[in-house]
Amino acid sequence: MRSFRTTTSVLHHKLPYFPYFNNNTISGGSYPPCFVATISTQKEAAAMATHQSSQNTPQPVQVAKRLEKFKTTIFTQMSMLAVKHGAINLGQGFPNFDGPEFVKEAAIQAIKDGKNQYARGYGVPDLNSAVAERFKNDTGLVVDPEKEVTVTSGCTEAIAATILGLINPEDEVILFAPFYDSYEATLSMAGAKIKCITLRPPDFSIPIDELKSAITKNTRAILMNTPHNPTGKMFTRDELNLIASLCIENDVLVFSDEVYDKLAFEMDHISIASLPGMYERTVTLNSLGKTFSLTGWKIGWAISPPHLTWGVRQAHSYLTFATSTPMQHAAAVALKTSDAYYEELKRDYLAKKKILEEGLKAVGFTVYPSSGTYFIIVDHTPFGLEDDISFCEYLIKEVGVVAIPTSVFYLNKEDGKNLVRFTFCKDEGTLRSAVERMKEKLSRK
């Protein structure tokens, strides 16, 4: 994180110095130009001296209390280390290959067609309709694209708009740990009270009794993610039915992050909104990036009944107002593609998954099953490092491969200290190279 001192020093270096002239001195014209220039130069010199002095006095980092516990994201830290040490990055979840040509061409055409000004705040009509149609195909639910679909700047903003628009300070929200790191940070911004239910290996199933006891009269929502990042777990129909019954019984909302819905390998993905009695209390969150390998476009959406959509849109209006116009038009083209695209996507990722999964087992990791997403969780303890942070640093510096330590995805860091996450959203050559490096340089201790 850049300190306040650094930020101000950059501004001072880049902005010209404009001395303040009042009517009693310079602007009255009573001094010759050379004298005016001398005064200006002296003022500049004095200002620069003051600035240089302030540079030598470190200033405390300034951040609101609700965010002071959060550091630079682990993804940024590991990616920087990867560059520094020339490591193969199997940490951060973005593909090292590009999205489909027909979608990129649609974006180019939208730009050429002049679709470059602010979009309608909650989405261009064509994309709202495409999202609603895809949701109908996937779940059987018919939603109003004008009243129940809100387009956002990626799913991360959809999550933020949902939390900030529907959660009040002191509301209790239940998370399943490990969790995507933005959940905790955004809930902290909203002033929510977080309760965590820990999912444990090998199958990361829901501890039913813990979930039941966690729900109180103050519970406002359950925030869940299926298929689940970072574990690759998919919530079963029985688990979803349990969550649904508890939410209906206790009048609790569900915020369901489903960005990996098209990367479901061993069972069909089920949207909890499709279960009886659940649509009216669910916000379904999704995006384009994971499915179409276009993570930099940041096109996401939230689907919810009108009484919940109001809160989501109120927050969205003051977070980003509107999302990239040409990319929205291209996203609409993407979502209208045939099911053949999704079938090919799944085949491609299954092949990549096999390379990494078999490779990690051959290296000596304890590898846990991944039913969805493009992540695999492993136990690193056979290699004798103290914890996940130490292991990942060793892996980068000595082996040349990046993984993500999972303790950052838990409120209780001890719960994740034995686990690290690898991603297989890379081309097959990259995956094989990473496996070979680990086979060559990583030894059990």
UniProtKB/TrEMBL annotation:
Keyword terms: Aminotransferase, Pyridoxal phosphate, Transferase
UniProt entry tagged with the keyword Ribosomal protein: no
SUPFAM superfamilies: PLP-dependent transferases (SSF53383)
InterPro entries for this protein: Aminotransferase_I/II_large (IPR004839), Kynurenine-oxoglutarate_AT (IPR051326), PyrdxlP-dep_Trfase (IPR015424), PyrdxlP-dep_Trfase_major (IPR015421), PyrdxlP-dep_Trfase_small (IPR015422)
Pfam families: Aminotran_1_2
GO terms for cellular component: cytoplasm
Gene3D superfamilies reported for this sequence: Aspartate Aminotransferase, domain 1 (3.90.1150.10), Type I PLP-dependent aspartate aminotransferase-like (Major domain) (3.40.640.10)
UniProt GO molecular function: kynurenine-oxoglutarate transaminase activity; pyridoxal phosphate binding
Keyword Ligase assigned: no
Residue span(s) of domain Aminotransferase class I/classII large: 88-437
The protein's required cofactors: pyridoxal 5'-phosphate
Protein name: Pyridoxal phosphate-dependent transferases superfamily protein
Species of origin: Heracleum sosnowskyi
